[in-house]
Write a structure and sequence with these properties.
This protein is of the alpha+beta class. It has helices at 15-34, 145-159, 175-185, and strands spanning 4-10, 39-40, 49-50, 54-59, 75-76, 89-93, 96-99, 113-116, 132-138, 164-167, 191-194, 197-201, 212-213. The protein has one domain (4-213). The protein has three helices and 13 strands; from the N terminus they run E-H-E-E-E-E-E-E-E-E-H-E-H-E-E-E. Strands 2, 3, 4 and 8 form a four-stranded antiparallel beta sheet that branches. A hairpin with a 2-residue loop joins strand 6 (89-93) and strand 7. The longest helix has 20 residues, at 15-34.
């Protein structure tokens, strides 16, 4: 239980495609740091792993953020966004706290975000009928959630229907990531969350209506 993002991806991503994904994500790192997102290695310490073979990171255990409150199984409230944009606690839900902004209780780490170029399935794992393998990352709407969602927008941009991205969040909870990508990379706002899946809008027709690509 907890706020999570999910994706199904191919076992192997071509080297040139993965190189583009990594390069674009790298362009976001200064802006993420400026926004207060403290990234660390997969276990919350050291440096994030971002290279030609894998992207793996977590929030930093020693992030320096205030520890003035307790966050129990946080879930984004309606309209939640930003990073430490005011008092994080906006109420409660049946399992814990509703939060109005990405925040942590003095420890930004949660689950590792792990996205290798070549996925090594465990013995019991099988691909779905499209040949895609399942992965997920529970972020608990910690600050590094912004990095996770931005990376998934980038992956969707380059992999298209070869990756299926789903989320516990609403479209409004992805707005920061989409806007960050748009401002730094020139794309992002064409994606939106529909029925828990990140999809791309089709160009407007002559009548002005839009549909979406999955």
């Amino acid at each position: 239980m907890g706020y999570t993002h999910y994706w199904r991806r191919p076992k192997l991503i071509p080297k040139e495609t993965f190189k583009k994904i990594v390069a674009d994500f790298g362009k976001l790192l200064p802006a993420l740091e400026q926004a207060g997102v403290k990234l660390a290695g997969p276990l919350g310490e050291g440096e994030p792993v971002i290279d030609r073979d894998v992207v793996a990171f977590n929030g930093a255990i020693n992030c320096g953020h205030p520890a003035d409150y307790e966050l129990v199984i946080p879930w984004p409230a309606s309209g939640a966004g930003g990073v430490f944009a005011g008092n994080p606690v906006a109420g409660t839900w049946f399992a814990g706290h509703l939060v109005a902004t990405r925040a942590c209780p003095g420890d930004c780490s949660y689950e590792t975000f792990y996205f290798p170029r070549v996925y090594g399935p465990r013995e019991w794992e099988e691909p779905d009928k499209r040949g895609l393998y399942f992965q997920f990352c529970k972020t608990a709407f910690r600050p590094y959630d912004l990095a996770v969602t931005a990376f998934l927008v980038i992956a969707k941009r380059y992999l298209g229907d070869r990756i299926v991205v789903a989320t516990d969040g609403e479209d409004e909870h992805w707005f920061d990531a989409k806007l960050l990508c748009q401002l730094r990379l020139g794309y992002g706002l064409e994606f939106f969350v529909r029925e828990s899946e990140l999809v791309k809008a089709l160009p407007a027709t002559k009548g002005g209506s839009k549909d979406a690509l999955s």
